[in-house]
Specification:
The chain has about 90 residues and is an all-alpha fold. It has helices at about 10-20, 25-35, 35-45, 50-60. About 45% of the residues lie in helices and about 0% in strands. The longest helix has 14 residues, at about 10-20. This is Helix-turn-helix domain-containing protein.
Length: about 90
């Protein structure tokens, strides 16, 4: 399943859900990543404060990856461009 995320804050719930789907506690994921449970909790609560390298490692351990797409080329089921997920930058 694809999750379209425009802001780091949107990633928080997805990380927690993906970890749970893998049957991993924060401590177990931390052990796989080489960090402590507190670090995983911090990453899940503030995913914008983690390095891209560490985020990619976490996504890999959770069986996921990162895709980059051009927003104006993404279409909804109606065939119209999806302009609802634009960040406020």
């Amino acid at each position: 399943m694809d999750y379209r995320i425009s802001l780091a804050t949107q990633l928080s719930s997805h990380l927690k859900s993906l970890r749970s789907q893998q049957g991993l506690s924060q401590a177990a994921l931390g052990k796989l990543l080489g960090v402590g449970q507190v670090r995983i909790a911090n990453i899940e609560n503030n995913p914008g404060a983690v390095s891209l390298d560490q985020m990619l490692s976490i996504l890999h351990l959770l069986g996921c990856g990162l895709s980059i797409y051009k927003r104006d080329e993404v279409k909804t089921a109606t065939g119209k461009p999806d302009n609802d997920n634009k960040p406020d930058w």
